Amino acid sequence: MTQLLPEADRKTLLPPLAETGWAAVPGRDAIRKIWKFRSFSEAWGFMSRAALVAEKLNHHPEWSNVYNVVDVTLTTHDCQGLSRLDLDLAKAMDRFAPGAEIQRDHGEPVSCLCEIHARKA
Amino acid sequence: MTQLLPEADRKTLLPPLAETGWAAVPGRDAIRKIWKFRSFSEAWGFMSRAALVAEKLNHHPEWSNVYNVVDVTLTTHDCQGLSRLDLDLAKAMDRFAPGAEIQRDHGEPVSCLCEIHARKA
Amino acid sequence: MTQLLPEADRKTLLPPLAETGWAAVPGRDAIRKIWKFRSFSEAWGFMSRAALVAEKLNHHPEWSNVYNVVDVTLTTHDCQGLSRLDLDLAKAMDRFAPGAEIQRDHGEPVSCLCEIHARKA
Amino acid sequence: MTQLLPEADRKTLLPPLAETGWAAVPGRDAIRKIWKFRSFSEAWGFMSRAALVAEKLNHHPEWSNVYNVVDVTLTTHDCQGLSRLDLDLAKAMDRFAPGAEIQRDHGEPVSCLCEIHARKA
What we know:
The structure is a homotetramer of 121-residue chains. Chain A has helices at residues 7-19, 40-57, 84-96, 116-120; strands at residues 23-24, 31-36, 62-66, 69-74, 101-103. Chain A is of the alpha+beta class. In chain A, β1 (23-24) and β2 form a beta hairpin. Chain A is globular. The two termini of chain A are 23 Å apart. Chain A binds chain B through residues 40-41, 44, 48, 51, 54-55, 60-67, and chain B through 40-41, 44, 48, 51, 54-55, 60-67.
């Protein structure tokens, strides 16, 4: 059973991800990022590498692709919310797409994910 | 410029696709199919082959993936609706996933896509 | 450090692989199999799934591809010979290509890999 | 039928490829390049993009992969030698791996491919 990410970790680990473009999904304990590549080929190269790490972690994204855009949402089914696995997958994905444009017109600040009790209340 | 699929072709070409599980997307001139594979690996093998044919046709799907499920919507941006390219891509995808389970609990019958004028009126 | 496959395991585990088309590589403690698919697309679907399992096992094949042919050699660098990882990867690959044609005109019977001491002598 | 690359084109088009690391394969009218990436993941991302362009061109490489190394030989079966397709695929591959290390300890200068008659004599 995967453990829900503790509050202390959320406060230290989510803000750096927010800086790279990850945002909170409204109404879910999940993070989302949208990459815009220069071509389908570039998007697919990214997805091919992300697929490898997802399978290695045995933790898979919810993702969609339309031509050069890849839209990724991460959460952990097991614990119904963010776990350490989501952070690991997010950081790996960030390494695979250093040059892509990031869309930032969605979601909410990750700060709203920082307090588990507040979120569930 | 890609041509919108003529009515005559819709009436002959869409019903066979409907039988394999393609349905009309409500409010769009688009078709959609949802495959459920046995694993992420099997889903990814399918997507990897679909990516090849999409790039070859220079016609790409709107698709999403969550673990073993692949959800594909096809339409042609150029002509803002279904074109021959969508049928070609749909048929290729069908060939790549003979054993997968098909979800049929979405969309509308393709018959609603068979009359261009009625749809646009 | 990965352990070299013990003799007892070789005698029970290699023959079933030999039946599916794996053969001994002359002069090496390695096994090899050659798949012939119907197209590059089919070969690539196979390789894409094999890549996932290789990365998951952190154990990668020596492989080459020419159009519809995929030629795979497995051995473990760490222990300079066959290990349990090679068997795991071989069996996974076999599951990904049930319909492909297997070329059997290469290599030697796996029986020559069954005795570690004899082989090294 | 694909046309063998004419001498004039060889003299102008092969030297720029040689500068990026492509070399002549001894005894064949073919070019070869070896990339060394930082990981299997990076190698696989490259191969995944190369597969797309190969399928699009309907022209496929002879290639092998061992962990982070990808070894590519290009020639055209149709005309039994280099064609324009090989140059197109070579240039596409070069674009997909800007940061990789190139091994240059193999092959012969491409200048030996520059004269078709001399080569065949």
